Design the sequence.
């Protein structure tokens, strides 16, 4: 059996201040040690370290660079003879793996190695804008 101490709030029923002295001593945001992020480099440092480790320091802009969604040749091997990777959401075709059948691909960007392997089997690689 584990003995536990009673909660302070139940112990102090009927007490006006629950052991904090004058009425105004345990009240308001000022009692927490400042307003907003005041003290985050001093007495609230442990909170910053635990819950917001990236709060301080340099933050670089990331909005201008978009990561390309890539696909490899061996994944194309499982697909049909005509594949529109642009509509599927892929931006670049990479040359890893082997192809076993002729494939006509529409994609925005590709590597030289991927193009060589596709043309070896008699396929073609085009951009989505070539038809316009």
Sequence:
């Amino acid at each position: 059996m584990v003995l536990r101490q009673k909660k302070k709030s139940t112990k102090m029923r009927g007490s006006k201040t629950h052991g904090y002295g004058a009425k105004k001593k345990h009240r308001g945001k000022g009692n927490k040690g400042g307003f907003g992020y005041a003290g985050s480099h001093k007495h609230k440092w442990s909170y910053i370290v635990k819950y917001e480790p990236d709060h301080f320091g340099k933050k670089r802009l990331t909005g201008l660079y978009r990561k390309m969604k890539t696909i490899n040749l061996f994944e194309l091997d499982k697909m049909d003879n005509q594949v529109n990777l642009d509509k599927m959401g892929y931006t670049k075709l990479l040359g890893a793996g082997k192809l076993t059948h002729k494939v006509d691909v529409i994609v925005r960007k590709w590597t030289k190695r991927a193009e060589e392997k596709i043309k070896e089997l008699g396929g073609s690689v085009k951009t989505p804008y070539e038809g316009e």
